[in-house]
Every structure is written in structure tokens, then in C-alpha cells.
Amino acid sequence: MLVAPGYAVCDVVGPQTVLGVQPGAELHLLWKNRETVTGWPTFPTVPTTDFAHCPEELDVLAVGAVAPEVVTDPEVIEFFKDAASRAKHVIAVCGGVLLAGTAGLLAGRRATTNFHIIELLSAFGAIPVEGGEVVRDGNLWTAGPASASYEAALLVLAELSGEQAAREAELDLEYAPHPPFGTGSPALAGPEMTADSMRRMQALLNLDPAESLRDGLRKAASR
Fold first, then answer.
1. Proportion of the chain above pLDDT 70, given as a percent
2. Active-site residue, selected from the candidate residues 65, 77, 94, 129
3. What's 56's domain CATH number?
């Protein structure tokens, strides 16, 4: 699991919990070095494994949203591309799908992400799937909202250990969401609230929705 500076904790807690508690699981929190990084929002994290000591074979490689400078970092891209080529399954959640894109994993594949940035997926040659909770294409599992990270992890667990193990994990975690307000997607919230959310997220993350960001991602993907 990649834990870059500024990584979105909510995006990776699903795989970390669902897969990390399985009998015999060996969980690696990966970064360039083992110095403490701060997840978003304010969540100090100590990586357990640096890139150089990442195991050769991974059952699952997971990434959530990371900062734009991480998505376009050549060292991170090269590591992620190499690790993904050896992993049985790759889970990319929310903005983590952009790193999968710069690492060359999205070309010609169906993929989703959250509604704030789904328009960027075409920059990587992906086939965007709007409104997708979890989308699978081969060994790549992409998820839009952070809550879907649990669902992606449960589906991957079923592939690795069988459906019964995944059913038991779902029960053990009591994963049965009941959203209290019914506004958890653009379709449910309506256009006005969705537009407000887009503005808030762009300001919060300092995202540039203009073509310059799209161009930067294309350049990173073509390295």
C-alpha cells in the first residue's frame, strides 16, 4: 500500500483493514524511504518498507489519492509501474487512479474514479466509467468513492481466498453502509450540490481543472 506524503487515508483504509487482518497477511506501507509521512487529513504514518526493499511478488498493490506532485514523480511512477507488473491485483481508489494512469496501466482499459476528476482519465487512453463504485478490467480494480475501497478489497479477497472468506470478512467488519442523508453521489445530490462540491474540492486540493493539468499528466504518462 502506497503511503506518499499527502495520501488520502480514507482511500486506503478499506484494503488495509479488509486484507491486513486476514490470517498470515503481510502488510507493507510503501514509500521512497521510511521517514514519517503525513496523510490527509493530518495522519502521521511511518512507512514499513521503502521502495528498494519492496517484495518481488505482491498479492495486492493498493493506492489511494496522492498529491499531483506524487502522481507525476518519475521515481514513484517507475516504482509503481514495476510493482504493478508483478502484482496479482492492483487496487486504485479515487485520485490513486491517476497514478495508475501515469504508470501506463489505464490505456485501453475500463476504469472509474470519483466524479471530481473522472474527466482526466481519457488523458491516459482509459475508457471512463461514470458512476462506477468498483470497475474491474483484468487484474486492475478501480474505485470511485473512498467507501468503495472496502468493496474493491472484498472483491479482491474473494479472488485470492475464495468467496466464503470475503463473506466472512464482510460480516466481521459489519460492512453494511446506510448513508444517512442520501446525497452520496451526483445522481442523488443533484446538479447544484454537485457543482458546489466540485468547487470545494478544487479549492481544497488546489487542483487545476484546466488543460494544463491534463497536459502534465499526459507528459508524465509518456515518460
1. 91
2. 94
3. 3.40.50.880
